[in-house]
Amino acid sequence: MEKRAEILSGKVFAKAIKEEVAEDVKKLKEEHGINPCLVVVRVGEDTASEVYVNSKVKTAEELGIISEHKHLSEETSQEDLLAVVEELNKRDDVDGILVQLPLPKQINEKVILEKINPEKDVDGFHPVNVGRLSQGQEALTPCTPAGVIDMLKRANIEISGKNAVVVGRSNIVGKPMAMLLLHENATVTICHSRTKDLAGVCSNADILVAAVGVTGIITDNHIKEGAIVVDVGMNRLTDIEEAKGFFGEDKLAKRLKTIEKRGSTLVGDVNQKAAMEKGSYFTPVPGGVGLLTVAMLMKNTIKAARMRRLK
Length: 311
Ligand code: NDP
Prior knowledge:
Blueprint: E1 6-7, H1 10-32, E2 37-43, H2 47-62, E3 66-72, H3 78-90, E4 96-99, H4 109-115, H5 127-135, H6 143-154, E5 163-167, H7 174-183, E6 187-191, H8 198-202, E7 207-210, E8 228-231, E9 235-237, H9 240-244, H10 249-262, E10 265-267, H11 272-278, E11 281-283, H12 290-309
Parallel strand pairs: 1-11, 2-3, 2-4, 5-6, 5-7, 7-8, 8-11
Antiparallel strand pairs: 9-10
Helix pairs in contact: 1-12, 2-12, 6-7, 6-12
Bound molecules: NADPH dihydro-nicotinamide-adenine-dinucleotide phosphate (NDP).
NADPH dihydro-nicotinamide-adenine-dinucleotide phosphate (NDP) binds near residues 195, 198, 211, 235 and 289.
């Protein structure tokens, strides 16, 4: 089958979002004397968290947003972390607070996330923001699903009236993704680990969003001809034979080399070969949705600054 889907490049869309944010930061400073500020709190030594936090802080600085990185020790108690959040809640110069997950086991994530002032909750995980999103009110919304909607709109993809299927129902991606698609007037179905006949449900989707965390769970059988396929998953593929059925000929050699060299290659939940052959649009991994998340965090920081300081 010939290659058909158009690639939705996270790099291109993230660049556009960041340019708009930088422009908005300038305006906030010049017109209102506001210097937006994002504080990222990291607890412990999780390597992936360190990479994510550094990238968030660096991007903020690039766009003219003041950023602080508070790094606390692995042994930090829940009480001490609550005190840090409380202090940031009180600081008028702080617009966005992000506590990087996962947290060490002595700390209850839910308790911490609920302590963050909803007006500064740039991750959009606080129940107040979840409730506002659900009611269609102005809210700070989780960055990854918000990024997907932003990307579809920038690509002039019509959402209204489409059948959208979201695979995954986490609070971070699946549920807010479904809610945002609903607000855009899609007819939304949510699938999860107990869904019977996943392929049957997915193959009815005009817009298919995979947010599962299982390599290649979405195959040829799950993709409707001409579907828009959005891959949120981030997984490591290690098996050479599996890789051979995963990528089109144009990508395979490079990916096999990466596996040989590093032992694995980054992939999503969607079989790329199938999405390229059957879909009309596809967000690849890497290079798709992942790049939008940090850009949307910056957008949320500016939104938080405007909502709180200019009300
Ligand atoms: P979770 O593990 O919290 O949720 C996974 C969801 O997938 C659950 O709802 C689960 O169902 C469902 N699921 C698991 N197995 C199956 C199956 N066999 N069939 C159907 N559904 C299944 O993950 P997240 O939502 O946090 O993340 C999902 C993926 O997205 C991960 O790969 C993650 O790394 C990636 N991610 C990427 C981001 C980005 O910036 N690109 C940001 C955030 C996440 P159930 O509820 O029944 O258990």
